[in-house]
Write a structure and sequence with these properties.
Blueprint lengths: L3 H7 L3 H9 L1 H16 L3 H7 L5 H29 L7 H17 L6 H12 L5 H9 L7 H27 L2
Length: about 180
């Protein structure tokens, strides 16, 4: 679609469009492009474009149909991203679900920036038991770390807490 020749088939201005449609080479390219588009969509989507004559008509039909669904999907995923909480999930499960939501947003061309991922995961999702970690390790030291640095720091924090609990328990058991 990057080729200027094919782009003319999808983005057609009304003045030059009719003249181009009369050209036999343009018609051949248009049929090829229409076939390419139709060959890459699902059977259900194909039923939407039956009767469309040009590649532009096929493209505009698909764009109109899926643009709204994409916006709805974006809103749902963004809402999930902002409302997901660790709750009773393990940290690994929480981070996995959080990352899947971010990846799904990226797949619809709405990527979540690294700082936003860290901010939403740390500040909003981990919960009060991680407040000290979140405020002292992550949020208090701008700039925010990358996602991988955040996950690594969180895992180190969890490991340190477990070691501290073990040490405390051992101290309590000593006479």
């Amino acid at each position: 679609m990057e080729s200027a020749e094919f782009k003319d088939h999808i983005i057609l201005d009304s003045k030059s469009g009719k003249e181009k449609e009369k050209s036999s080479s343009w018609s051949l390219q248009d049929r090829l492009l229409k076939s390419l588009i139709c060959g890459t969509i699902t059977e259900e989507s194909l039923s939407l474009v039956v009767g469309r004559i040009t590649a532009q008509e096929v493209w505009e039909c698909l764009e109109g149909t899926f643009a709204e669904a994409s916006k709805d999907g974006e809103l749902i995923l963004t809402h999930q991203l902002h409302t997901i909480r660790k709750g009773k999930l393990s940290v690994a499960e929480y981070l996995k679900i959080f990352k899947i939501i971010c990846d799904e947003l990226g797949a619809i061309q709405k990527p979540v920036s690294e700082p936003d991922k860290v901010y939403w995961a740390a500040h909003h999702g981990l919960g009060p038991s991680y407040m000290v970690f979140t405020t002292t390790t992550i949020l208090a030291r701008p700039p925010l770390p990358s996602w991988n640095q955040f996950v690594s720091a969180l895992n180190s924090h969890i490991f340190g807490c477990k070691k501290q609990q073990q040490l405390t328990l051992m101290m309590m058991l000593l006479p």
